[in-house]
Amino acid sequence: MQLPKEYQVRKIPHDYYLRFLDPIAYSETIDFHTKGNFFIHEAFKNRTALHFINNKDLSDLTGNELRLHPDMDLCLPIKSEKSQTSDLNRNESCESFLDDPIPFDIVEKMINPLTSTTKDSHKRGYPSGGALYPVEVFVCSLIDEHPTWPCSERILHLLPQSRKFERVTSSHSIQDLKKSIFSAPHTIGMPSIAIIYVAYLPKTFFKYRYRGYRMALMEAGSIYTIIELQCKKLGLGSRQWSAYTDTLICKSIGLNPALFLPVSVHLIGKSA
């Protein structure tokens, strides 16, 4: 039995959205986004810096809550007790990962809340402005020997409505991907999985223009919050990661960096 036309998954080419864009507004937004990119390369590691703030000032400025009236006692206590055992409280970010693959059936359970509840519904497990869903989710294996990984391609693109993974061609080797993610020195070990959240801005920009950029960022935050809670439920460690170069991430996946904007990399694995 064939589904009614309104429930069928429409296979629209990704560049079809470009027909409906305001080119000036889109170009200005891309230029703004580019200002927040890192360019991390071995050749420049001793010649670049993110800031020149000393350690004392940096310590004073981080980890604090913002008070609007710090010189006045206008605070009301919250009576309920916060419990870390609650399903709605995430675990702390993982400090070190074991070089140990996560079985693929666990990966599927972790991703499952992002998919549509049924194949005849476009609604997914997270909110999206106008049901446009501009954030694409790429699930990547980072372990050299991953015996339960279902295919030779190491990067899978989530199709939430179809409840399928689309294999990304030319992703049989993970070396370029690992270099693009860990282009800066790190001491966190090797996570099993990287989930890369990529905003395809034309998908929301044609309707909401500049505000579409904000909606894409909001959606990415909704998605990785769900994944954080799933990791806690499944006993996995997770960590948000931003020390990467956007263009290298796009190149390793095979995406046009003028259209696809990596928003965040989510590292997931077994805690050391």
In short:
With 272 residues, the protein is of the alpha+beta class. It has helices spanning 23-34, 55-61, 104-111, 175-181, 202-208, 210-234, 246-253; strands spanning 135-141, 155-159, 164-167, 193-200, 237-241, 260-269.
Written account of the structure:
- It contains seven helices and six strands, in the order αααβββαβααβαβ.
- The protein has helices at 23-34, 55-61, 104-111, 175-181, 202-208, 210-234, 246-253; strands spanning 135-141, 155-159, 164-167, 193-200, 237-241, 260-269.
- Helix 3 (104-111) crosses helix 6 and helix 5 (202-208) crosses helix 6 (210-234).
- The protein is globular.
- The relative contact order is 0.20.
Mean pLDDT: 88
Instruction: Summarize the amount of helix as a percent range.
Output: 25-40%
- Reading the helices and strands in chain order gives HHHEEEHEHHEHE
Radius of gyration: 20 Å
How far apart are the first and last residues' alpha carbons, in Å?
A: 50 Å
The profile of the biggest β sheet is: 6 strands, antiparallel
Beta-strand share of residues = 5-15%
Shape assignment:
globular
